Amino acid sequence: MGNNPLLTVQDRAALVHEAAGTVGNLLTLTYGLLALGLVITALGIVNTLAVSVAERTREIGVLRAIGMDRAGIRRVIRPESLTIAAFGTLLGLLGGMFGARAVGALAADRIRRTGGTGPDRSSRHPRR
């Protein structure tokens, strides 16, 4: 074994500490990606609403011309924005739940095939 850099001998505490550091790094990465997703989602919602308002400029002008005030315009646009947000949330939750179930089923199948021991080597040639 000697000075093999691929092989290290550790006690249980060192192994747990090393694994905790790796898991902590993965969690930090996951939280960062989640935050990035939330920012992108918020920008998408704002962009959708801005496009909706821009497309409805003439309608808003007509409503203002017949006497509706700014608060009335907000009362018209706010339910639309809440509807868009609700449908986006619903679709996101359904997609996330479907994706989580699919990944969970794939992982469970993989664990069942390998017995939880690691990579599936059944399709490879046995070692000689």
Please tell me about this protein's structure.
- This protein has 128 residues and is mainly alpha-helical.
- Helix content is 77%, strand content 0%.
- It has 3 helices and no strands.
- The longest helix is centred in the last third of the chain and has 45 residues.
- The radius of gyration is 27 Å and the shape is elongated.
- The model has no long low-confidence stretch (mean pLDDT 84).
Helix content: over 70%
Q: Structural class of the helix and strand makeup?
A: mainly alpha
The largest β sheet comes out as:
none
Return Rg in Å: 27 Å
Measure the end-to-end span.
21 Å
Number of strands: 0
Percent in strands? under 5%
Q: Number of helical runs?
A: 3
Q: Provide mean pLDDT, rounded.
A: 84
Runs in which pLDDT lies below 50 for 5 or more consecutive residues are none
Based on Cα principal axes, name the global outline: elongated
Give the H and E element order: HHH
Tell me briefly what this model is:
This protein has 128 residues and is mostly helical. It contains three helices and no strands. It is elongated.
Task: Explain the layout of strands and helices.
Blueprint: H1 12-55, H2 57-65, H3 70-114
What are the salient characteristics of this protein?
single chain; 128 residues; 3 helices; 77% helix
